[in-house]
Design a protein that fits this description.
The chain is mostly beta strands. The chain is 0% helix and 45% strand. The chain is elongated, with a radius of gyration of 31 Å.
């Protein structure tokens, strides 16, 4: 709805004096409209908003009345995380490629200072093993794919979840000015990765978003216990998390999930038989 939006009602009640249509003498008509302030309305006091209604007739004077409101919108922090894992089902051949798609969008009604996306959502410092929801239990990271960051993002930092020989911990990357290609922290290789976190810092407007792709390749053995992945079906119900922050406000968080299945290759055998009647 804009300042030029209007609603016109043409009454069609049958009348006798005068003969025609309109509204009968002594009758009344009431209409109620429900309106909602948009979720992305900027936080502030709007000042007086005057709404005017008028009624006119071919045989009566036009009448006008108005009502005034003021919108006092508060800061509303919000973030939306999206996630895909394609293909969703594959047969197990070590090295077979798949792709995780990630997105985090500012759904606040204000600019935010940071947007962060983390894969997977559950990756605490000091863990002895990777969580069951972690895609890197059965796949290896092969690199970043197509990535977009908003214009308001002035720097990007990539952190990696890495095993130090005893526990898994986050290794912080450098905060790099944009534009820049995503890269793992210094000293971390693709094979080391058990999780990835991407953080944009700057002044991100409502609807600004980060999107990226993570390349994966099937492992031969489970990363936690070394068990052979070829003998059974394996499923990962994978969750990614995201956050939007602004100084002086509580952060907004969200999660999204995607499920991946890896099926064993079932060996097959064939048999042929022939009876030679000439012998």
């Amino acid at each position: 709805m804009t300042a030029s939006t209007s609603l016109t009602i043409d009454l069609q009640q049958v009348t006798n004096d005068p003969v025609g249509v309109g509204i009968k003498a002594g009758s009344s008509f009431t209409i109620q409209l429900s309106l909602k302030v948009p979720d992305d309305y900027p936080p502030s006091a709007s000042g007086p908003i005057v709404n005017t209604a008028s009624v006119s007739a071919s045989n009566a004077d036009t009448k006008v009345d108005d009502a005034t409101i003021t919108v006092d919108a508060k800061v509303k922090m919000g973030v939306d995380v999206t996630k895909t894992w394609t293909p969703a089902t594959q047969k197990h051949f070590p090295g077979t490629a798949s792709t995780i798609g990630l997105g985090v969008k500012n759904t606040s009604n204000v600019d935010v200072d940071t947007l962060t996306i983390q894969e997977p959502a559950t990756a605490p410092d000091g863990a002895a093993t990777l969580n069951a929801s972690n895609p890197f239990t059965i796949t290896d990271f092969t690199g970043f794919g197509t990535t977009t960051v908003p214009l308001g993002c002035t720097s990007v930092q990539v952190d990696a979840y890495v095993f130090n020989g005893t526990t898994w911990n986050w290794v912080s990357g450098a905060n790099m000015p944009t534009p820049v290609a995503l890269a793992l922290p210094s000293g971390v290789t693709n094979a080391d990765v058990g999780g990835v976190r991407i953080r944009c810092t700057g002044n991100m407007s409502p609807s600004d978003q980060i999107t990226t792709q993570l390349g994966l390749a099937q492992r031969a053995n489970h990363r936690n216990d070394g068990s052979d992945l070829s003998t059974d079906e394996h499923q990962v119900v994978n969750q990614a998390s995201g956050a939007a922050t602004k100084a002086g406000e509580d952060p907004a968080t969200d999660q999204a999930s995607a499920t991946y299945r890896m099926k064993p290759v079932i060996p097959t055998v064939e048999t042929n038989k022939n009876i030679d009647t000439d012998r």
